């Protein structure tokens, strides 16, 4: 009997044994005898990815929730997941036990945005970045840029007059310019075109296959990302030489006593542009859609904004908006809230369990993804009666804690929420008081890219109101 005739069948047997064992562990982990949440994992590796992506993902989530309840397991994009859709479970994952669930993104996205960006971290480094970001975006800081935001809003709207436009595209330009203002201050105009050119190439490859070979979209994006980092490094060096005293995000990063490296600053600036632009532009696009579909709501918003305009227009001259003016817009604010609830542009977020976690008698195994489903919570009949109806008046009463999370919850919740609301209010002030718009073509569908968006980005025609219509 030679060596290979014994060794080969034996090693084959050992291989099959371990394969079987690991499959068994994977699908039926038996840690502490706790059961996994109900649900199905689908086929090995592909899991239920096709079921999720072959239809509107929200239909998939809603059907699962109906069948299994507010916590269920599934398997998508090669990862076993637990999905949760109750306010209590979302609070558990995002707030009270946040340390047990780390943020998780595909490696290609981390490379593209920058590994040292705030989203990808937990612990001390995250806390330090968060303090610096919040310092630049809290009301005290952004109060000073209201009139600059207003100039950007006016320039944007004037450039759209009389044109057939894709709302989302134009809103992206607006939110990009506001993001640059909040990061680089008024000097942003000096770098706007270069940053825009690179950022637009970067975003084209963001959802592409992560193949970094010459000619691929991913490769072009990675090159654009490097170019962006070079531009940011140049801006940092100019600021250091000129010793400018500013009140923007870059200053907050550069002024940190413990010091961030230029690379860390660049990663976080690119990250903030990414977090700030498409999100706010999607919400604005939905607002225009809902207002045009709800003329009575548009009427009361317009009246609220006209009253503010009249109160400032004492000598026939339009005065710049102030932070205080934006605090007198309760109806418009409710429209923003209701839009964020109905549209739920971020249907869910991702976390990963850093150890085995028990929740409500179920096991969430270490390494599994956990997805709080914001949209399911925002569309729960028990929490928001008649949930599909666009009804801003429901926000006359503050929603119960952990039931309304358009900006997330807990230590990773959105530090840019005040800026996002401010730029929406300012744009809506000028839009409703000076312009009319009508949607063009069919606009009942929703597309995901990755944020929920009205079909084709909502084509509209925008025109200036005549004096008598104002
Ligand atoms: C309407 C517009 C916006 C929406 C709906 C939105 C939503 C969110 C949500 C849900 C999160 C938490 C994600 C998670 O927990 O995984 C988040 C995080 C974040 N957002 Fe926003 N956001 C908006 C605008 C902005 C703006 C304007 C900025 C910056 C100026 C910004 C900067 C960030 C940053 C830096 C984070 C990461 C925070 C951290 O990891 O600690 N966002 N955003």
The third-level CATH topology of the largest domain is Cytochrome p450
Name of the CATH homologous superfamily of the largest domain: Cytochrome P450
Strand arrangement, major sheet: 1-2-8-5-3
Overall average pLDDT: 90
Please give the count of helices: 18
Hetero compounds: protoporphyrin IX containing FE
Our estimate of the beta-strand percent is 5-15%
Poorly predicted runs = none
Number of strands: 12
Radius of gyration over all CA atoms, rounded: 25 Å
Report on the biggest sheet: 5 strands, mixed
Morphology call: globular
| Spatial gap, N to C terminus | 98 Å
Q: Helix proportion of residues, in percent?
A: 40-55%
CATH class of the largest domain: Mainly Alpha
CATH architecture of the largest domain: Orthogonal Bundle
Describe the structure.
The chain is an alpha+beta fold and 470 residues long. It has helices at 3-27, 49-53, 57-68, 87-96, 107-113, 123-137, 139-142, 146-160, 167-184, 188-204, 217-242, 249-254, 262-293, 295-312, 323-326, 330-343, 374-378, 417-434, and strands at residues 71-76, 79-84, 101-103, 164-166, 351-353, 357-359, 362-364, 369-372, 435-439, 446-448, 452-454, 459-464. The chain has a 5-stranded mixed beta sheet. Strand 1 (71-76) and strand 2 form a beta hairpin. 37% of the residues are buried. The model has no long low-confidence stretch (mean pLDDT 90). The structure holds protoporphyrin IX containing FE. The site of protoporphyrin IX containing FE (HEM) has 27 residues, from helix 6, helix 9, helix 13 and helix 18.
